[in-house]
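dumping these here so i dont lose them again. two proteins, back to back, each one seq then structure tokens. dont judge the mess
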Amino acid sequence: MHIVEVVAALIWERGKYLICQRPAHKARGLLWEFVGGKVEPSETKQQALVRECMEELGIAVTVGEVFSEVTHAYPDITVHLTFFRCTIAAGTPALLEHADMKWVSPAEIRDYPFCPADEDILKKIIESA
């Protein structure tokens, strides 16, 4: 079984996390997620996260410590997700790829339908709030 390495940014500002809605035409379209993506063979997880945040939101991020890791099997792909705490170093988030984005508090996070792979991380976020 091939496992795809994926990274995601937990961007925290003024008591809220930045969440993004997947484009309608992509797998798991219109579900919510944390910005991120696949790690390319030539890069570290941190480098992948910096690249993905720039490509998807037009922001430079500072990557902090690992918050959590999870492996999840979808019908079409198995992913190993690493979530990093991140802060915005430069830029303002823009919708370059996603359908929508919002800043939400841990208490509001359950109001949004997330990708199934994010379920464990959502519990940790709510518990650590």
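---- next one ----
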Amino acid sequence: MNMAMLLLANARIVDGTADHPGDPVNVLVEGGTIREVGPKVASAKAKVLDLGGRTLMPGLIDCHVHVVAGLADLGRNAALPDSLVMSRAIGIMQGMLMRGFTTVRDVGGADFGVKLAAEEGLLPMPRLVISGKALSQTGGHADFRGRFDSRPPQAVGPFPLGALGRICDGVDAVRQASREEIKAGADFIKIMANGGVASPTDPIHFFGFSREEITAIVAEAAAAGTYVSAHLYTDEAIRRAVECGVHSLEHCNLIGPETARLAAKGGAVAVPTLVTYEMLAREGASLGFPADSVAKIDTVRLAGLKSLEIMQEAGLTMAYGSDLLGAMHRHQSEEFVIRGRVLKPKDVIASATHIAARLCRMEGLIGTIAPGAHADLVVVEGNPLADLSLLTRQGRHMPVILRGGAFVKRKALN
């Protein structure tokens, strides 16, 4: 069964490389891999699914998720038993897959066991690229103890599955934490280099870690052949992170033009996550998001669209991210529409296909419809380049979704 052949006929490819759908082609899938793509590709051995000129996209990629964040209150989430967190994470990931996201990059929380569960395919879940636990200083964006909680942070693992991060202070400690996360299966290292909305004691403008600590973490990641991703909002914090060698810049709502140009020149990638602030402002309080955190939302929310313009003009590469928590995960695809208010549809789609694939270090394997790539494919009714909302509504306009050549959704094509 693993080597079954499937021919997707009369497909018009939309992959973020052109501003119009491609001419009809056939895509031959064998097992979990795309074998051939072209107008005359055929096989007598393959089952044929005629798409009738419908849009065919590579599986979408979200580069900023927290699949273990079943609760919006991240402090409470970290106190839940691992079994409950994993059960909820499976549901969260299945929802992502049914929205067409066949790969997600977890930037704090998921461990190697969650990644293995996704790879084993016992339940339908997206591919996972993980940072393990995000690194935070005392009082930083992964410290949820509150002002009156003086208990020492947990110093050694295993850490609760529901905890998005771990606390470490000083150059020696951050080196050890980086090495431990890489040993435990992290694909890259995530740090909290600015204050955040969800955490209780760090206003947005706070710096996270010293330059010496960030530089040490970057060196450890480089020694392991990977990179550092950083939670960042303010222009000064972003500039400092870029100067220290950070590659992946998460959020970036308050970035300025000069810093954006510096980041672009250094080959950094930004991962905006505008949808999470829209939804936190709308639904956060009713879902248990702490009042102190709700009060911080507009500081970054109102600057979001302007940041896209600044980064686009500077030539700073942007990948797709959502960063949703708890019941708000269902809004994951709305980021397409929000970005489409400022950016061209082709560029928005590119952020969730080939650009995201490069950031995941899986270029040529995901985010593309080409020979040798994983057969992660999404059929869309209509043209997303003309209407990005076709990628929303919980996959309503996606009658067919394949992950590794296997159907995870298959509705009749009229």
